[in-house]
Amino acid sequence: MQINNRILDDLTRVTNSALGTMTGVKGEVDALVRQQFEKILMGMDMVTREEFDVVHDVAIKAAERIDALEARIADLEKRLETAESAAAPASKPAAKRTASKSAAKKDS
């Protein structure tokens, strides 16, 4: 038993047509939203990914260079302390001897 109803056929065609139109409208709205979003981003003066990557690499190299220089400074400070401590005991007794000789001369 097959029912041929023209009203249902017409309603089906109208519905399919409306869905097709809505799909087209959705595509147009998506395109407009994307276009507006890109326009807003261009006005924000943002950097590109490539520019960010370049600056990021430079910052990493600078941080590594700073670490190396800090290690070198620490090494040089150790050497300076070692040199000062090696020279300091030899000069202190001489200073004491000079001071004691001056005191002995004053007593005489």
TrEMBL record:
Question: Pfam families of this UniProt entry?
Answer: BMFP (PF04380)
Residue spans of biased composition, Low complexity class: 83-93
Q: Where is this region: Disordered?
A: 82-108
Which InterPro entries does this UniProt record tie to the protein?
UbiK
UniProt GO cellular component terms? cytosol
Q: What is this protein called?
A: Accessory factor UbiK family protein
| UniProt organism field | Thalassospira povalilytica
